[in-house]
């Protein structure tokens, strides 16, 4: 058996998947309708909407199988997300990657697999709409087109979820998405008795970038700033764009020394980014930090307000 490799942009892919907050949610008719259609149209025993998480593949919709997830290292879908086109295995017993895979040698005894990679956007494949059967099969061009059409229907449903929680410009969480993810992170901190820290970022002299160089340059600056946030912060941290030129991060289980180290890395990354983009302006920012016990009674909005106040104090100090 050959284990699936992880995409080069795995961190970005996982962030996008988790931002959707679709993992471990209930089955929905809009997804089940498509998998029922696929199972019937192709005459296969199993059809799935499978989302590839860090160490597992989880089934948002499943027809013909009771399992809700399997390990990623034995998944066919883990291989399928590494390409943009259909991933088709006519007979798994004749494929060196899968002939001794436990999903082939034991239940559900896969012989045929066909997966359509579900794209959130170009280069970000979250999982697959896949067909599975216990007998070898071939898909002709008409069947392949049908699978692609059904996969596009699933992508439309996923995109409708994305629009509610993702900032369209920077492709990190919008305010709604951030607050939802941060509330989940806060519950984890409460259970594990871990501290929480909010860092609020505000771009300095952002309006002159728009006024002097155009809104396309302002959008470029916001996107670059978001990219640095995505690169510097941990996968366990929650990041988002609150609106305009305000960004936010929520960290858990970090002390002052660790927070200072993160801010120093972030400052170095912004400086390196400014040098690499070679623009007539520099992207600069102020940051406000507020830390809280897991026992705090403050709401997330109140915690953000504390960080906002600290950020404005920093702005004032710099203007003196």
TrEMBL record:
InterPro entries: GAF, GAF-like_dom_sf, GGDEF_dom, Nucleotide_cyclase, Rev_trsase/Diguanyl_cyclase. It comes from the Bacteria. Pfam families: GAF, GGDEF. Residues 194-320 form the GGDEF domain. This is GGDEF domain-containing protein. It comes from Methylophaga thiooxydans.
């Amino acid at each position: 058996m050959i284990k699936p490799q992880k995409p080069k942009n795995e961190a970005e892919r996982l962030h996008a998947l988790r931002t959707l907050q679709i993992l471990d949610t209930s089955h929905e008719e809009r997804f089940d309708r498509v998998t029922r259609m696929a199972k019937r149209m192709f005459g296969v025993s199993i059809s799935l909407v499978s989302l590839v998480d860090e160490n597992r593949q989880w089934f948002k919709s499943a027809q013909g199988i009771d399992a809700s997830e399997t390990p990623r290292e034995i998944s066919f879908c883990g291989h399928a997300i590494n390409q943009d086109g259909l991933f088709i295995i006519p007979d798994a017993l004749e494929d060196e990657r899968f002939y001794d895979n436990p999903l082939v040698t034991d239940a559900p005894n896969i012989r045929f697999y066909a997966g359509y990679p579900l794209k959130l956007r170009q280069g970000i494949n979250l999982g697959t709409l896949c067909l599975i059967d216990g007998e070898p099969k071939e898909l002709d061009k008409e069947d392949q087109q049908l699978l692609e059409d059904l996969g596009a229907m699933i992508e439309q449903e996923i995109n409708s979820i994305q629009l509610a929680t993702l900032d369209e410009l920077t492709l990190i969480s919008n305010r709604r998405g951030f607050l939802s993810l941060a509330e989940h992170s806060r519950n984890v901190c409460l259970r594990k008795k871990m501290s929480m820290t909010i860092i609020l970022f505000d771009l300095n002299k952002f309006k002159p970038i728009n006024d002097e160089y155009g809104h396309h340059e302002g959008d470029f600056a916001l996107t670059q700033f978001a990219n640095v946030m995505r690169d510097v912060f941990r996968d366990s941290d929650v990041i988002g764009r609150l609106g305009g030129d305000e960004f936010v991060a929520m960290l858990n289980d970090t002390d002052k020394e660790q927070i200072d180290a993160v801010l120093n890395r972030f400052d170095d990354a912004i400086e390196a980014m400014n040098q690499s983009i070679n623009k007539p302006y520099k992207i600069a920012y102020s940051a406000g930090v507020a830390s809280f016990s897991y026992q705090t009674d403050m709401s997330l909005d109140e915690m953000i307000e504390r960080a906002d106040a600290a950020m404005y104090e920093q702005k004032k100090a710099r203007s003196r």
